[in-house]
Amino acid sequence: MPDTTQTSQLTLSKTRIQAGVWEGLLMADGVGNTQPRIEVIHLGKPLEGVEIKADGEMQNLWQLRVPIPAELLCDGVQTFAIRDARTGAALEHFTIVTGQPLEDDIRAEVDLLRAELDMLKKAFRRHCLEVLGR
Predict the structure, then answer these.
(1) Which of 8, 23, 38, 100 could crosslink 89 through cysteines, CB 3.0-4.6 Å?
(2) Would you call 26 exposed, middle or buried from its count of C-beta atoms within 10 A (0-12, 13-18, 19+)?
């Protein structure tokens, strides 16, 4: 089991999600060209099919591709954690939000925020009238 208290010498930057594949650039600090070991975890289980390909132009730079299995996408929020498999250090994560229930939740939250804002506006106006009326 990896030691999750260690820090990683790797830096990961997302480039895009396209056609169901999360893509990023992975850079290693220091010298040498040891290919990193990366794991992607979803609900405690590692994803299959993660690809790391060396960038032909630069040493210590790799292209990371993470296919997102369609069977993992369902209503709600799905979070995928990308880690250095050697140290267990978290490098990045991405979240996919889908489904009608979530849309309803967001609308309800916006309605609550509007109601609170209306209440604050009324209280502020009342306060201003009291201050100016003195």
Answers:
(1) 8
(2) buried
- Tokens 């925020």, residue located: 113
Query: How far is 132 from 124, CA to CA, in rounded Å?
Result: 12
Which two three-digit tokens encode residue 116?
């609170």
Q: pLDDT for 96-130, tens place per residue?
A: 988 776 667 777 788 889 989 989 999 999 999 98
d(CA 118, CA 10): 48
- Residue owning tokens 């009238």: 129
The enclosing H or E element of 105 equals helix 100-133
Element (H, E) at 107: helix 100-133
d(CA 37, CA 30): 16
Question: In the chain, what is the straight-line distance between the N-terminal and C-terminal CA atoms, in Å?
Answer: 70
**The amino acid at 55:** D
**Spatial CB neighbours of 96, under 8 Å, sequence gap ≥ 6:** 68, 73, 77, 78, 80
